[in-house]
Amino acid sequence: MGSCTSSYKVDEDIKLFRYNESAGIRSLDPAFAKDQANIWAVNQIYNGLVQLDDSLRVQPCLAKSWEISDSNTLYIFHLRNDVYFHESPAFANGSRTVNSHDVQYSLQRLVDEKTASPGRWVMENIARKTNDKLDINCLNDSTVEIRLKAPFSPFLSLLSMQYCSVIPQEAVEYYGEEFGRNPVGTGPFRFQYWKENVKLVLLRNENYFEKDKSGNKLPYLDGVVVTFIAEKHTAFMEFMQGNFDMISGLDPNYKDVLLNADGSLKEKHNDFMSMTRIPYLNTEYLGILIDPKAEGSLNILQKKKIRQAMNYGFDRVKMMQYLRNNIGYPGLYGMIPPGLAGYQEDSSKAYVYNPEKTRQLLSEAGFPSGAGLPEIILQTTATYLDLCEYIQKELSTYGFKIVLDVVPPATLREMVSQSKSPFFRASWIADYPDAENYLSLFYSPYTVPNGPNYTHFNNVEYDNLYTLAIAEEIDSIRYGYYAEMNALIMEEAPVMVLYYDMAVRFINNRISGLEPNAMNLLNLKSARKE
Fold first, then answer.
1. % of the chain residues with pLDDT over 70
2. 199, 76: one domain
3. How far apart are CA 470 and CA 271, in angstroms?
4. Element (H, E) at 492
5. Strand (E) or helix (H) holding 396
6. CA pair distance 249, 503, nearest whole angstrom
7. Assigned domain for 81 exists
8. Of 349, 347, 335, which Cα lies nearest the Cα of 281?
9. Cβ partners under 8 Å of residue 123, min gap 6
10. At 216, phi and psi to the nearest 5?
11. In terms of residue numbers, what domain contains 127?
12. Residue 239 located in a structural domain
């Protein structure tokens, strides 16, 4: 696969960052950077107009500066003039500098039906010149303007997504359908070799434009090697033997090998590895289809007090302690996770475990002590069966009859997207670091299939607040709207938030400079290896 021979080998003496990707990588075309495996690799090869720092603040990248005008609908970006694409036979002279036409081409390509990018939605806020032509104009080679349909405050954060990486048209035309296997970008590492299901090799981009605070060229590493061992036990043992530099996430099979009961790393591992754990912008929840026309047993979920009773009826703190070794935060405060503006630890609106409140709400709903409650089917996947069994047992003490239906992940996703699952386990990982990304799940115009409102939540007050928020340029006012919207979701309870995730990494001690971030994005340009 790719343009190199299958016998390619790497000098073992050079500084390579090695990790395993059990899910495999399907494409190195940023237009298909949908899941974490693809995003991590794409992030090493490409750059966008802007980027996020480790605190998730928008920073310059290919664009050195920008202005926003015309009632926050016109964005003018000024590009650096020292950024070169990776050398490639696609270029007549081996390489060339990035210009505004590359930006225009890359973003327009996302909405091209021939591309069929899952990231097409990212361009939804950009105005159109025609039905399929984005209102993006090149004022000169180093200046590009983007006009929005209406003000959208998270737009810069949106542009930080890997979908919006800048690519050269020559390379796409040269490689055709094979561009995703022969990527050409501007990033800190350039493509060298890829054998599917075996190994991906990226090497240091000697012409990379970014430098550290002392003026030293980035990246420090000589390259990145990604292997694709599907068997997680084998991959874990490879890490423990020092053959991988990092493992990300915590497999339940190994949590007791690595962690103490309180979630800290066992002392015996300190000489070999370190652990980083920070809030991860991922909210795990149970979704409830809000359908006033629901009949039979499904009708019970349409009663707000029943939904509230279920939310108060299980102990999230205990659940995280015993089932997750405290890797994660109990989901007490609504959909917005810690780390985003709009998240508030307001105990007056929290779903803190409250058996008396559950019994009271059941009585008020007409089901004293749970008498007369019908069976309620909860659909989940095998990975989250332990959590759902815990909730099933906790709620049974009040008379709830929860029946678990375990289905394959792809099946559940399909059923939820087609509104065929009245009660389902789901998660929402932030596409970009703004609470709007979570709150859009409950905006009625975004009800599936037009958007991610899988619960069919419909509330006029909520929709009005959402419209005000996305147009508001003053952050403090916008964050206030976010908090109001989150409180409304808590009150109406179309979801049962389980927990807010943590980004957990176990890193070999020979690696330094690998900073965690709440998007769990892998940034290797500042990493070093002893």
1. 97
2. yes
3. 48
4. helix 475-492
5. helix 385-396
6. 7
7. yes
8. 335
9. 107, 110, 111, 134
10. -80, 145
11. 16-227+510-529
12. no
pLDDT-derived band at 404 (thresholds 50, 70, 90) equals: very high
Which residue has tokens 């939540």?
Answer: 457
Give pTM, 2 decimals.
Answer: 0.88
The CATH number linked to 345 is 3.10.105.10
Both tokens of 477, joined, read: 């006012």
Burial class (CB in 10 A: 0-12, 13-18, 19+), 485: buried
Torsion 353-359-361-362 (CA) sign: positive
The helix/strand count (H/E) of the chain reads as 14, 21
The DSSP string of 440-468 is GGG-GGGBTTSSSBTT----HHHHHHHHH
CB 18 within 8 A of CB 211: no
- SS3 (DSSP) at 217: strand
Q: Which residues of 226-258 are buried (b: 16+ CB within 10 A; e: fewer)?
A: bbbbeeeeebbebbbeeebbbbbebeeebbeeb
**Cα separation, 229 vs 312, whole angstroms:** 42
361: Cα separation from own chain's centroid: 35
Alpha helices in 146-247 (DSSP H): 155-159, 169-175, 232-240
Unique residue bearing structure tokens 């652990």: 275
Asked if residue 457 and residue 334 are part of one domain, the reply reads yes
Q: How far apart are CA 511 and CA 527, in angstroms?
A: 7
State both tokens at 399. Answer: 């008379």
Distance of alpha carbon 341 from alpha carbon 344, whole angstroms: 8
Answer whether 371's CB lies under 8 Å from 399's CB.
yes
Three-state SS letters, 183-209: CCCCCCEEEEEEECCCEEEEEECCCCC
Q: How far apart are CA 105 and CA 31, in angstroms?
A: 12
The one-letter code for the residue type at 378 is: L
Domain count, the chain: 2
pLDDT digits (tens, 9 = 90+) for 195-220: 989 999 999 999 999 999 999 999 99
What token pair was written down for 310? 């279920």
Angstrom distance (rounded) from CA 102 to CA 98: 7
CB-based contact 147:191 (threshold 8 Å): no
SS3 425: strand
- Measured distance between the N- and C-terminal CA atoms of the chain, rounded to whole angstroms: 31
pLDDT at 252: 76
Distance of CA 406 to the CA centre of its chain: 24
- The C-alpha torsion from 303 through 308 and 313 to 319, rounded to 10°, is 120
28, part of any domain: yes
